[in-house]
Design brief:
binds 2-phosphoglycolic acid; 250 residues; 8 strands; alpha/beta; eight-stranded parallel barrel
């Protein structure tokens, strides 16, 4: 079943105290009887506390990244098993900042996806074109290749644990949002290529989130598009009022 989802990617923001404060505000402000899923992704050092804090609330907790190996000599890295051990069952993979600044390739991401799925975690898989790709008319090709190389090795049954997040790089943190029409056009394209590869059920069931400068002012219009199933929110996820408004805009 396709789900409506709003996820907040806190990136490298909020220390321990600020994390607790923001979580308390969200617990107060977000109604408990919503159909849409609400997910927050604090930094690694605050994940354990966040998972404890949110345990008896409907708000779910995700990691922003993880390593593909089960363990070993990988200084500074975090494994799927470690995330599981603190109650984290969702991981964001392939964010454009990971791809750009930490050189994460499609092949590496495919390995990370496999490890996460082996641990029965859910993956929020991010992808999206750069501005130069769009200017060159290559945005559909770029997105298709990112999906093919990162995810299309999976069996159809694995897709129940995949959430897609289309995030055009030119719209992330820039204040420039894709228009609702641009988002819908790409989301429809994404669902079509999944349909071609996996059939109608997988295509109709997968949630495709839009990410890139979603704010309280533009969320409702973007979310109203038939193939947009929610959002991955960066900047606006750091303020409880804004994030709550976006959650309620769906
Ligand atoms: P933004 O970030 O909402 O600040 O543009 C979105 C994201 O990077 O997931």
């Amino acid at each position: 079943m396709r789900q409506k989802i709003v996820a907040g990617n806190w990136k490298m923001h909020k220390n321990a105290e600020e994390t607790e404060d923001l979580l308390n505000e969200l617990i107060d402000k977000i109604p408990t009887d919503l159909d849409q899923r609400v997910i927050v992704a604090p930094t690694f050092v605050n994940l354990s506390a966040a998972a404890d804090h949110l345990e008896f609330t409907p708000i779910e907790v995700a990691a922003q990244n993880m390593h593909q190996a089960e363990g070993g000599a990988f200084t500074g890295e975090i494994s799927a098993g470690m995330l599981e051990s603190v109650g984290v069952r969702i991981v964001i993979l392939g964010h454009s900042e990971r791809r750009a600044y930490f050189h994460e390739t499609d092949a590496l991401l495919a390995a990370k996806v496999d490890t996460a799925l082996k641990h029965e975690m859910e993956v929020i898989f991010c992808f999206g074109e750069e501005l130069k790709d769009r200017h060159a008319g290559q945005h559909f090709n770029v997105v298709e290749n990112q999906l093919k190389d990162g995810l299309f090795h999976l069996e159809a049954s694995a897709w129940k644990n995949i959430i897609l997040a289309y995030e055009p790089v030119w719209a992330i943190g820039t204040g420039e949002t894709a228009s609702p029409e641009q988002a819908q056009e790409m989301h429809e394209f994404i669902r079509d290529i999944i349909r071609k590869n996996y059939g109608n059920t997988v295509a109709e069931d997968v949630s495709i989130l839009y990410g890139g400068s979603v704010k309280p002012e533009n969320a409702a219009e973007i979310f109203s598009k038939p193939d947009v199933d929610g959002g991955l929110i960066g900047g606006a996820a750091l303020k409880s009022d804004d994030f709550t408004k976006i959650v309620l805009a769906i």
